[in-house]
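Lab notebook, design round three. We kept the backbone fixed and only want residue identities now. Task for the bench partner: fill in a sequence for the structure below.
Input structure tokens:
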């Protein structure tokens, strides 16, 4: 079995509404053993309520597999990076620390690393992964590029991410505005990007302070 080459996974952060439907559905994937392998992160919690679903990006050269001393993490020919194999995993946490996207999860009760495998039991037979099948805003989409182009004419997909001096190519795509000149997302640059400060005037508090001030 293999994920059909014409079907791809797309993430559109601008459409995420923070409903957690994907998180709940992920735990129902047969290969995840009742655990959710997806999470919602705040983009900038101090300034916005915007969330983004975080799934495994299935890197062309997966760092998690490269640092595994037991050779427990494998990437199949269709580009899917799988959870560690139980007979080999030594629960060293190397993969957890090395992944630039923060994906692998160490299941301490099982001494086993588990991660999003794009619901391989479903996608390998042409079905949508659980998260994409329940996302009400289609922030997570699984289908063809032709379908995506028809649905999102103002967006385009990129799959190159920069972390410092390293560029990582991924199987999973991120959507950006079509008219932007972004060719790759510089993750570390955005991490240190300063947000504009805002001043909020609260009339109720100001009036109370004015009334309490001595004559």
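Proposed sequence:
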């Amino acid at each position: 079995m293999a994920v059909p080459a014409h079907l791809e996974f797309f993430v559109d952060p601008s459409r995420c509404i923070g409903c957690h439907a994907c998180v709940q559905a992920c735990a129902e994937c047969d290969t995840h053993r009742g655990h959710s392998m997806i999470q919602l992160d705040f983009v900038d919690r101090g300034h916005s309520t915007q969330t983004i679903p975080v799934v495994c990006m299935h890197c062309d050269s997966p760092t998690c597999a490269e640092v595994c001393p037991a050779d427990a993490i494998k990437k199949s020919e269709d580009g899917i990076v799988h959870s560690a194999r139980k007979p080999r995993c030594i629960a060293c946490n190397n993969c957890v620390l090395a992944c630039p996207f923060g994906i692998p999860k160490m299941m301490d009760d099982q001494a086993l690393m588990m991660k999003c495998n794009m619901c391989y039991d479903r996608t390998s037979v042409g079905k949508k992964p659980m998260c994409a099948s329940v996302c009400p805003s289609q922030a997570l989409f699984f289908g063809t590029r032709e379908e995506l182009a028809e649905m999102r004419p103002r967006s385009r997909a990129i799959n190159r991410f920069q972390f410092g001096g390293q560029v990582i190519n991924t199987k999973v795509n991120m959507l950006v505005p079509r008219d932007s000149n972004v060719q790759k997302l510089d993750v570390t640059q955005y991490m240190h990007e300063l947000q504009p400060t805002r001043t909020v005037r609260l009339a109720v508090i100001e009036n109370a302070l004015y009334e309490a001030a001595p004559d």
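Keep this in mind before ordering anything: Strands lie at 8-11, 39-42, 51-54, 105-107, 112-114, 140-143, 155-163, 166-177, 185-186.
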